[in-house]
Protein backbone atom coordinates (compact mmCIF):
# COMPACT_ATOMS: atom_id res chain seq x y z
CA UNK A 1 0.00 0.00 0.00
CA UNK A 2 1.21 3.47 -0.76
CA UNK A 3 0.57 6.66 1.13
CA UNK A 4 -2.34 7.79 -1.11
CA UNK A 5 -4.25 4.57 -0.47
CA UNK A 6 -3.74 4.99 3.29
CA UNK A 7 -5.04 8.57 3.10
CA UNK A 8 -8.15 7.42 1.23
CA UNK A 9 -8.82 4.65 3.77
CA UNK A 10 -8.31 7.13 6.63
CA UNK A 11 -10.66 9.71 5.06
CA UNK A 12 -13.35 7.11 4.38
CA UNK A 13 -13.06 5.62 7.86
CA UNK A 14 -13.20 9.05 9.51
CA UNK A 15 -16.33 10.00 7.60
CA UNK A 16 -18.14 6.83 8.66
CA UNK A 17 -17.49 7.35 12.39
CA UNK A 18 -18.60 10.97 12.66
CA UNK A 19 -22.37 11.24 12.37
CA UNK A 20 -23.72 14.68 11.65
CA UNK A 21 -25.59 16.67 14.27
CA UNK A 22 -29.04 17.49 12.94
CA UNK A 23 -30.46 21.01 13.00
CA UNK A 24 -32.94 20.00 15.72
CA UNK A 25 -30.14 18.56 17.86
CA UNK A 26 -28.11 21.76 17.39
CA UNK A 27 -31.08 23.81 18.56
CA UNK A 28 -31.47 21.63 21.67
CA UNK A 29 -27.72 22.06 22.28
CA UNK A 30 -27.85 25.86 22.05
CA UNK A 31 -29.96 26.28 25.20
CA UNK A 32 -27.55 24.52 27.60
CA UNK A 33 -24.55 26.17 25.95
CA UNK A 34 -26.14 29.60 26.28
CA UNK A 35 -26.92 28.93 29.96
CA UNK A 36 -23.30 27.90 30.55
CA UNK A 37 -22.05 31.08 28.82
CA UNK A 38 -24.44 33.23 30.83
CA UNK A 39 -23.36 31.61 34.10
CA UNK A 40 -19.69 32.06 33.19
CA UNK A 41 -20.26 35.79 32.54
CA UNK A 42 -22.20 36.16 35.77
CA UNK A 43 -19.54 34.34 37.78
CA UNK A 44 -16.73 36.44 36.31
CA UNK A 45 -18.39 39.79 36.97
CA UNK A 46 -19.58 38.79 40.45
CA UNK A 47 -15.99 37.81 41.31
CA UNK A 48 -14.67 41.16 40.05
CA UNK A 49 -17.28 43.00 42.15
CA UNK A 50 -16.54 40.82 45.20
CA UNK A 51 -12.80 41.51 44.97
CA UNK A 52 -13.46 45.24 44.62
CA UNK A 53 -15.75 45.11 47.66
CA UNK A 54 -13.11 43.27 49.71
CA UNK A 55 -10.45 45.83 48.80
CA UNK A 56 -12.76 48.74 49.67
CA UNK A 57 -13.57 47.04 52.99
CA UNK A 58 -9.87 46.55 53.78
CA UNK A 59 -9.06 50.18 53.00
CA UNK A 60 -12.21 51.58 54.60
CA UNK A 61 -12.10 49.82 57.96
CA UNK A 62 -9.75 51.06 60.66
CA UNK A 63 -7.26 48.31 61.51
CA UNK A 64 -3.63 47.98 62.54
CA UNK A 65 -1.07 48.45 59.78
CA UNK A 66 0.29 44.88 59.97
CA UNK A 67 -3.17 43.34 59.80
CA UNK A 68 -4.06 45.50 56.78
CA UNK A 69 -0.75 44.69 55.08
CA UNK A 70 -1.21 40.93 55.54
CA UNK A 71 -4.78 41.09 54.25
CA UNK A 72 -3.78 43.18 51.22
CA UNK A 73 -1.01 40.72 50.30
CA UNK A 74 -3.34 37.77 50.80
CA UNK A 75 -6.08 39.33 48.66
CA UNK A 76 -3.55 40.27 45.95
CA UNK A 77 -2.28 36.67 45.83
CA UNK A 78 -5.86 35.36 45.71
CA UNK A 79 -6.59 37.76 42.85
CA UNK A 80 -3.61 36.49 40.84
CA UNK A 81 -4.70 32.86 41.33
CA UNK A 82 -8.32 33.70 40.53
CA UNK A 83 -7.47 35.45 37.28
CA UNK A 84 -5.11 32.65 36.25
CA UNK A 85 -8.04 30.24 36.41
CA UNK A 86 -10.39 32.73 34.76
CA UNK A 87 -7.96 32.90 31.84
CA UNK A 88 -8.44 29.12 31.46
CA UNK A 89 -12.23 29.45 31.74
CA UNK A 90 -12.19 32.25 29.16
CA UNK A 91 -10.73 29.86 26.57
CA UNK A 92 -13.73 27.58 27.07
CA UNK A 93 -16.07 30.57 26.96
CA UNK A 94 -14.67 31.63 23.59
CA UNK A 95 -14.87 28.08 22.28
CA UNK A 96 -18.54 27.61 23.17
CA UNK A 97 -19.44 31.14 22.08
CA UNK A 98 -18.69 30.24 18.50
CA UNK A 99 -19.51 26.54 18.28
CA UNK A 100 -19.19 24.62 15.06
CA UNK A 101 -20.86 21.53 16.39
CA UNK A 102 -21.79 19.67 13.27
CA UNK A 103 -20.37 16.21 14.01
CA UNK A 104 -20.13 13.75 16.85
CA UNK A 105 -16.39 14.37 16.98
CA UNK A 106 -16.87 18.09 17.60
CA UNK A 107 -19.34 17.32 20.40
CA UNK A 108 -16.87 14.88 21.95
CA UNK A 109 -14.19 17.57 21.79
CA UNK A 110 -16.56 19.96 23.55
CA UNK A 111 -17.22 17.37 26.28
CA UNK A 112 -13.47 16.92 26.70
CA UNK A 113 -13.15 20.68 27.19
CA UNK A 114 -15.95 20.61 29.76
CA UNK A 115 -14.28 17.76 31.66
CA UNK A 116 -10.95 19.57 31.55
CA UNK A 117 -12.57 22.73 32.90
CA UNK A 118 -14.29 20.68 35.60
CA UNK A 119 -10.79 19.69 36.74
CA UNK A 120 -9.71 23.35 36.57
CA UNK A 121 -12.70 24.20 38.72
CA UNK A 122 -11.70 21.62 41.31
CA UNK A 123 -8.10 22.88 41.18
CA UNK A 124 -9.39 26.44 41.66
CA UNK A 125 -11.07 25.52 44.93
CA UNK A 126 -8.10 23.44 46.09
CA UNK A 127 -5.78 26.35 45.37
CA UNK A 128 -7.58 28.33 48.07
CA UNK A 129 -6.43 25.94 50.82
CA UNK A 130 -3.20 27.88 51.51
CA UNK A 131 -5.16 31.13 51.55
CA UNK A 132 -7.57 29.67 54.07
CA UNK A 133 -4.66 28.62 56.28
CA UNK A 134 -3.09 32.08 55.89
CA UNK A 135 -6.35 33.80 56.78
CA UNK A 136 -6.75 31.64 59.88
CA UNK A 137 -3.20 32.45 61.00
CA UNK A 138 -3.81 36.18 60.51
CA UNK A 139 -7.13 36.07 62.36
CA UNK A 140 -5.85 33.96 65.26
CA UNK A 141 -2.70 36.03 65.66
CA UNK A 142 -4.65 39.30 65.63
CA UNK A 143 -7.08 38.23 68.37
CA UNK A 144 -5.48 39.23 71.69
CA UNK A 145 -7.32 36.54 73.66
CA UNK A 146 -5.83 33.79 71.47
CA UNK A 147 -2.47 34.38 73.17
CA UNK A 148 -4.02 33.34 76.48
CA UNK A 149 -5.26 29.99 75.13
CA UNK A 150 -3.37 26.85 76.16
CA UNK A 151 -1.39 25.24 73.33
CA UNK A 152 -3.74 22.26 73.00
CA UNK A 153 -6.84 24.47 72.86
CA UNK A 154 -5.19 26.72 70.26
CA UNK A 155 -4.21 23.70 68.15
CA UNK A 156 -7.71 22.22 68.35
CA UNK A 157 -9.30 25.57 67.47
CA UNK A 158 -6.89 26.13 64.57
CA UNK A 159 -7.10 22.63 63.06
CA UNK A 160 -10.87 22.47 63.60
CA UNK A 161 -11.34 25.80 61.84
CA UNK A 162 -9.18 24.68 58.92
CA UNK A 163 -11.05 21.38 58.56
CA UNK A 164 -14.43 23.12 58.76
CA UNK A 165 -13.27 25.65 56.15
CA UNK A 166 -12.01 22.90 53.84
CA UNK A 167 -15.26 20.98 54.13
CA UNK A 168 -17.20 24.15 53.39
CA UNK A 169 -15.01 24.91 50.33
CA UNK A 170 -15.42 21.36 49.01
CA UNK A 171 -19.21 21.36 49.46
CA UNK A 172 -19.54 24.85 47.99
CA UNK A 173 -17.40 23.97 44.97
CA UNK A 174 -19.31 20.74 44.32
CA UNK A 175 -22.72 22.40 44.65
CA UNK A 176 -21.69 25.49 42.70
CA UNK A 177 -20.34 23.52 39.74
CA UNK A 178 -23.32 21.18 39.57
CA UNK A 179 -25.87 23.97 39.90
CA UNK A 180 -24.32 26.41 37.41
CA UNK A 181 -22.66 24.05 34.92
CA UNK A 182 -23.09 20.33 35.65
CA UNK A 183 -26.77 20.00 34.76
CA UNK A 184 -26.16 21.66 31.39
CA UNK A 185 -23.10 19.53 30.67
CA UNK A 186 -25.28 16.47 31.40
CA UNK A 187 -27.62 17.58 28.59
CA UNK A 188 -24.69 17.75 26.16
CA UNK A 189 -23.58 14.27 27.29
CA UNK A 190 -27.08 12.90 26.63
CA UNK A 191 -26.97 14.32 23.11
CA UNK A 192 -23.62 12.63 22.51
CA UNK A 193 -25.04 9.33 23.78
CA UNK A 194 -28.00 9.70 21.41
CA UNK A 195 -25.65 10.24 18.48
CA UNK A 196 -23.52 7.25 19.42
CA UNK A 197 -26.53 4.92 19.62
From TrEMBL:
The chain crosses the membrane at residues 42-61, 67-87, 120-140, 152-173. Keywords: Membrane, Transmembrane, Transmembrane helix. This is Uncharacterized protein. It comes from Soonwooa buanensis.
Amino acid sequence: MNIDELKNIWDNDEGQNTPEVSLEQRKSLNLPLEKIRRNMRWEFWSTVILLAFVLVAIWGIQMPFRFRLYLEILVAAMTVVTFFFYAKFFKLYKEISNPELETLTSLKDLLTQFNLNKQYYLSFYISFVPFLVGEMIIVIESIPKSRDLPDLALAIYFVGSILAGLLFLWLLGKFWFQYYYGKYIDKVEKLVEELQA
